[in-house]
User: Which sequence fits this backbone?
């Protein structure tokens, strides 16, 4: 295991811990946001985003490069039809099941084994997308 | 608005933000989730879409990251959680069909709640902002439609 993989593993531990602590490993809690009975998801997403926003935008002023090398590049994507169409399809699946990719993985860690079905289906959906539209 | 209180949500979000920031400051990488599906498929499929260089270059660390996410939630369950292991009551057909649409849609859109939602908006990307608004609005409409049809939870 090289240093980069160790860093990503530790980052993943934080990500999974945070998702579980904030309840997002439970599709029911995600659904309670989408049903507008508990707005917690926005708080969680906001806290995560603001923390990351500070790191991404402030750090490069004090550090030339990431500690293990590489470059600081903000995450940018071009807006096109697929971005919006994909977001609509994702939104339907999300609203139907209360699962998104990260929350589904963390759901395994809380022992929610039915979510394996959802994760296998996510791989299938990603495959079909790449096979026919990629 | 917050029947379960606000503290676990804010704390959870801060922990996620610290993890994503730590990865970025150390490696310059964006620790996002949905690409895992495409990069892992590259181990098995020869289709050019999956054999693109960015997928081959990132497929290993994305697996380490995913294992970390699972174990991080396990750590919470074992050490912190008041209710221990837990199983959803969302029906299997919703997990299956919803999961398929999540996999398809996030890859078509090049991002999910973490890629567009956390890393994208933190990178001040307007594309990601539009994507987030779109999937939140569509998610709310869909969840209400199922509720209207009498599907619970």
Assistant:
């Amino acid at each position: 295991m090289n240093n980069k993989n160790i860093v990503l593993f530790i980052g993943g531990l934080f990500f999974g811990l945070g998702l579980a602590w904030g309840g997002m490993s439970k599709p029911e809690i995600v659904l309670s946001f989408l049903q507008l009975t508990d707005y917690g998801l926005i708080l969680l997403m906001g806290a995560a985003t603001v923390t990351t926003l500070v790191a991404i935008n402030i750090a490069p002023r004090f550090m030339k490069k990431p500690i293990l090398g590489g470059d600081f590049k903000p995450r940018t994507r071009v807006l096109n039809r697929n971005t919006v169409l994909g977001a609509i399809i994702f939104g339907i699946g999300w609203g139907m099941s209360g699962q998104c990719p990260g929350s589904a993985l963390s759901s395994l860690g809380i022992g929610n084994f039915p979510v394996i079905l959802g994760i296998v289906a996510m791989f299938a959906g990603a495959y079909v997308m790449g096979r026919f539209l990629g | 608005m917050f029947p379960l209180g606000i503290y676990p949500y804010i704390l959870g979000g801060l922990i996620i933000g610290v993890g994503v920031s730590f990865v970025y400051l150390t490696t310059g990488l964006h620790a996002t989730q949905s690409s895992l599906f495409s990069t892992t498929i590259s181990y098995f499929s020869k289709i050019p879409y999956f054999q693109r260089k960015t997928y081959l270059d990132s497929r290993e660390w994305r697996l380490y990251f995913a294992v970390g996410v699972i174990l991080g939630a396990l750590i919470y369950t074992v050490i912190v959680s008041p209710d221990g292991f837990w199983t959803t009551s969302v029906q299997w057909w919703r997990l299956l069909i919803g999961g398929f649409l999540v996999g398809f849609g996030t890859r078509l859109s090049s991002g999910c709640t973490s890629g567009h939602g956390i890393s994208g908006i933190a990178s001040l990307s307007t594309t990601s902002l539009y994507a987030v608004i779109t999937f939140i609005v569509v998610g709310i409409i869909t969840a209400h439609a199922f509720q209207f049809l009498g599907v619970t939870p």
